[in-house]
Amino acid sequence: MSTARIAVPSTIIRPGADPLTAINFLHVEEEDQARLVDVMVTAAQHMAGTPGNVSLNVLRSLDGSRIVSYGQWSDEQGLQAAERVDPVPELVERVRALTVNHPRPRLYSVVYADDRSPEGVSVISPSYTGAIFINEITTQPPTQARLLELVIANNQIQSQNTSGYRSANFHRSTDGERAVNYSLWDTAEHCIQAISAMADMDENLAETVEIASPDFRFYELVHASHA
């Protein structure tokens, strides 16, 4: 598929092991979110362009409780080296002081992507004006594969046929403990309608709830860089 019309800086989301995706979900008190955004953006600016870096993005949840970093790297060694670049270690300590959960990035691969745009791939870009929906789903290694089967099947049956749907991109963490959906919609209301319909129509919902705990929110992009 062609990506010639995709603007830069843009992070292209598509299945495959290259590049490696690192996603970090930061839990924060609402009154600290703006300060944490500043620290995360500063860290991203120092890490961007280091060997192995493809892209770095920082997003904040609209409810004030989360910040997400979404980065792409050619390999894990590049990410680890970037984390040692001065003053990133000091900034990481400031991040830990401001967060509730003291997280570290998990490594992911994109296992499924569906996009209705002319380019046929989703991008993380400052030019995007629709709703960004990100769902971090907690599971266990023995159930991760089944969870992905269920949520992808539900997306194919329901979300794709819902008004306002633009894309869904499911990621599998390498440690087996997470699945992440980065999804784009015309508006948040369209996505909420789809979630409500799923609760009424998804015949596999009970099994999904048994093996997974979702944590979904709407986000806006506050920083983007691309090598």
From TrEMBL:
Superkingdom to which the source organism belongs: Bacteria
Domain ABM: 20-111
One annotated GO molecular function: monooxygenase activity
Secretion signal span: none
Pfam families in the record: ABM (PF03992)
Entry keyword set: Monooxygenase, Oxidoreductase
PROSITE patterns (alphabetical): ABM
Protein's name according to its UniProt entry: Heme-degrading monooxygenase HmoA
Organism: Modestobacter marinus
